[in-house]
Specification:
Layout: H1 2-17, E1 19-23, E2 27-33, E3 36-37, E4 45-49, E5 55-60, E6 64-73, E7 79-90, H2 95-101, H3 106-123, H4 128-132, H5 134-152, E8 157-168, H6 171-221, H7 224-236, E9 241-242, E10 252-253, H8 254-259
Antiparallel strand pairs: 1-4, 2-3, 2-5, 6-7, 7-8, 9-10
Helix pairs in contact: 3-5
């Protein structure tokens, strides 16, 4: 009787010592019993744990970001600074396998070395000018992504994307780019001034052509009779002049007529 009571007490104590682990969405559990890791992941929910007998590790299987700042050589041997981000996630069904073969510190043990190696190997094949260009940065990101996908996906790490956030160029190259941009701005300014001068010249030519055309029209429409009409009209507008049609077509001035 005493033995049964003692056994019941031990079982009850073990029950109270037992705990539970809550596994949320975006997480997965890795179960370990007496040092042996189960190959089947534990789904989200409540998982019972018993000291020594069973433990459950909670693993994040949501999207994660690994940032890396590296200084790598270009194809010319110039040192280029890169700021990159790797977006990845742990495949839920592969979490136990990663725990067995790599361990919990898979980030530093597995992902970071491959990431750094990919940046170094890929960038080494590009000149600095290509690295600085938009097209070159896109190609570098795609090649790093392909390298990591080939090497990490089979190990249970899904590579989602590689982002090349910033490129720090060598001082000498930055100075050459600034000098080039300054020269290009000067050329653009000269081209603008030349275009303005051409437009102003075209305007002056158009004005001269218009004046010449107007003069040609006036000359083509003037006749001796019309000129005589304008002359007579002008004389009539003068109060001191009286026009009388004479044989000589000469005007008579009032003052002169009075003295006669």
């Amino acid at each position: 009787m005493k033995r049964k009571t003692l056994a019941a007490a031990l079982l009850l104590a073990a029950f109270f010592q037992a705990g539970c682990v809550i596994i949320d969405d975006g997480e997965v559990g890795v179960s370990k019993s007496f040092g042996n890791i189960s190959e089947a992941p534990v789904s989200p929910g409540v998982a019972i744990v018993v000291p020594i007998a069973r433990q459950v590790e909670v693993w994040n299987v949501k999207l994660q970001e690994l940032k890396e700042n590296a200084r790598v050589p270009s194809s010319e041997g110039l040192i280029v600074g890169l700021e990159t981000s790797l977006l990845y996630r742990v495949l839920p069904d592969q979490a136990p396998e990663i725990r067995i073969r790599v361990g919990r510190d898979y980030n530093n043990t597995l992902i970071t070395p491959y990431f750094r190696n990919a940046m170094r190997d890929v960038v080494a094949g590009y000149p600095v000018r290509k690295i600085y260009s938009d097209q070159g940065r896109k190609e570098i990101s795609e090649r790093i992504h392909g390298f990591l996908k080939q090497n990490l996906n089979p190990r249970g790490i899904q590579v989602v994307d590689v982002l090349l956030r910033d490129v720090e160029l060598p001082q000498r190259f930055r100075e050459s780019i600034e000098a080039k941009l300054t020269a290009e701005q000067k050329v653009q300014q000269k081209q603008f001034e030349l275009e303005q001068a051409r437009k102003e010249a075209e305007i002056e030519v158009a004005r001269a052509e218009g004046a010449a055309q107007a003069q040609r029209i006036v000359r083509s429409t003037l006749s001796d009779s019309y000129l005589q009409y304008l002359w007579i009209k002008t004389l009539n507008e003068n109060p001191n002049v009286i026009y009388v049609a004479t044989e000589a077509n000469l005007p008579i001035f009032k003052g002169v007529a009075g003295r006669r």
